[in-house]
Write a structure and sequence with these properties.
12 strands
Length: 512
């Protein structure tokens, strides 16, 4: 979209199909300070205003829906209602694009091509097709207006900043526009998209519940992506089929997202309800819009922060969270006051319009931690900001599915248990046992005697045991505890290899 087009639209704003009134620059009401009703009214006006300016501005509204750090929750909830859809490209335009990308070999490359799109979003259009060998694929076509912007390096001209400063000054806070343009640059860069989707496809080989899409590189370009296509159902269809209860499905989605964010190669930052799909074998595809990779260092800090938060260790949680934040003048921070505020972090209703009224919701606590840090002058670095945006997006989806529960907390607990089991399995895998087999044989040979000695001591009256004997018994008791602990670890691994206990393995591991 060129600057001249923006000015033309700014002078005479189109009427949006979902709006019964015509909003122009002259009658867009100014922001009204005050209560939530004022926020809701203003947010509605802003959303309709941005929608009326076209696809780029609608995309900006959807981005703002995830910036809970900058705007009242009423704004974020309203912006999330922006439709991610656009008028479909005509069949002639679709064929012209494919002919240009595949040098006139469209019929040979895709013998079967459905010119009726599966979806037509603000940025891309999706079509079903088949390869010459009958393999079903999805073709993703970048819309012409965004393709032209990319070729002309015109992202900086994408939005009319003077217009937004004049009519929506509150939306320009916190360098939101610059961050949005970086996000949009990732979305329309199909080379980048192909690389990240390939990473998710590889992760799916290791992550049981994750569904990935194969990228056909030879059939992709900077304007077209060709992806594998499998039969899948959306969230509503899964719930209607009763394959999952609402709480179980919401927990599974959160678990897949957390697993990808903390242990995967890249994570979807802005998943949306309608984009989430589930295959016939119950593997989850969260959609691939804005995909971001987090460094191993960041993933490690976030994992430790989340674990400390679930176990109510605020000082530890704060320490790891601040490693992913910056402060303009760190020497002026009153860390004692910060730690005191962090320990007292609680729910004050800030996210109620988005995530409901559950005061124990995990997302509420995470947000309050973030808010406390911001109050003391800290700002989230880019990787942490991406993590927060994704976390609150998946929490919003989970809340729509299961309004009464806390699936994010349940998902984190399940993921923690699964990681414990994996670590135990790694600790006593075959190679470790083979390398230390002689030591285990010696320990096993002494185990009956140690247990017998322990039982004998337990049967002796306390007053008959001398201090010297008590000291020796304590040392032998320590060895007994170590041996018993090792026995429990081995039992965990053996149980994990038994098909009959796979479903109850997490509970068994915790008990052991």
């Amino acid at each position: 979209m060129q600057t001249s087009t923006n000015r033309e639209l700014a002078s005479k704003i189109r009427k949006h199909p979902s709006n019964k009134n015509i909003f122009t620059l002259s009658n867009l009401p100014p922001q009204r300070a005050g209560n939530a009703d004022s926020h809701e009214h203003r947010a509605t006006q802003l959303r309709l205003f941005l929608q009326s300016l076209g696809q780029a501005y609608s995309s900006f509204a959807l981005y703002l829906a995830s910036r809970l750090d900058l705007f009242p929750a009423e704004y974020c909830r309203e912006f999330a209602l922006t439709p991610d859809e656009s008028t479909p490209l005509g069949a002639t335009d679709v064929l012209a694009c494919l002919e240009a990308e595949f040098s006139g070999r469209v019929e040979l490359t895709f013998p079967r091509l459905d010119l009726m799109p599966l979806r037509s979003t603000l940025i891309a259009q999706y079509h079903a097709a088949e390869l010459a060998n009958g393999t079903p694929v999805s073709i993703v076509i970048l819309r012409p207006e965004f393709h032209q912007l990319k070729d002309k390096n015109g992202l900086e001209r994408l939005l009319d900043q003077s217009l937004l400063n004049k009519r929506c000054p509150e939306l320009m806070a916190g360098a939101a526009l610059a961050d949005f343009q970086a996000l949009l640059d990732r979305k329309i860069d199909f080379e980048y998209q192909a690389e990240k989707r390939e990473q998710i496809f590889r992760d799916a080989a290791s992550f049981e519940a994750l569904e990935g899409e194969r990228v056909y590189r030879e059939l992709s370009s900077n304007r077209v992506l060709t992806l594998s296509r499998t039969e899948a159902n959306d969230v509503d269809q899964v719930l209607q089929s009763r394959r999952f209860t609402a709480d179980r499905l919401a927990t599974l989605l959160c678990k897949v997202w957390l697993q990808q964010a903390i242990f995967g190669s890249c994570v979807p930052v802005d998943p949306r309800y309608r984009d989430v799909m589930m295959s016939a074998v119950n593997r989850v595809n969260l959609g691939a819009s804005d995909l971001v990779s987090l460094s191993r260092r960041t993933q490690g800090n976030l994992w430790k922060y989340l674990l400390a938060t679930t176990t109510d260790e605020p000082d530890v949680a704060a320490r790891y969270l601040l490693k992913e934040m910056s402060h303009g003048a760190p020497t002026t921070v009153d860390y004692e006051n910060f730690r005191s505020s962090f320990r007292q972090s609680a729910y004050f209703g800030a996210l109620e319009p988005v995530l409901g009224t559950d005061s124990n919701a995990f997302a509420q606590l995470v947000f309050q931690h973030w808010k406390t840090a911001m109050t003391h002058g800290f700002t989230a670095d880019a990787p942490l900001l991406s993590f927060y945006r994704g976390l609150f997006s998946i929490a919003r989806i989970a809340r729509e599915i299961d309004p009464s529960g806390d699936p994010l907390r349940r998902a984190l607990e399940e993921l923690r248990t699964a990681r414990i089991v994996e670590q135990v399995q790694d600790f006593v895998d075959v190679r470790f046992l083979s390398q230390n087999f002689d030591k285990f044989l010696i320990a096993a040979a002494h185990l009956p005697g140690v247990l017998n000695d322990a039982l004998t001591r337990a049967a002796e009256p306390e007053d008959r045991v001398s201090p010297q004997k008590k000291a020796g018994d304590a040392r032998r008791g320590d060895r007994t505890a170590v041996l018993l602990a090792f026995a429990f670890l081995v039992a965990t691994v053996l149980l994990s290899q038994s098909p009959g206990v796979q479903s109850s393995l997490p509970r068994v591991a915790v008990v052991l």
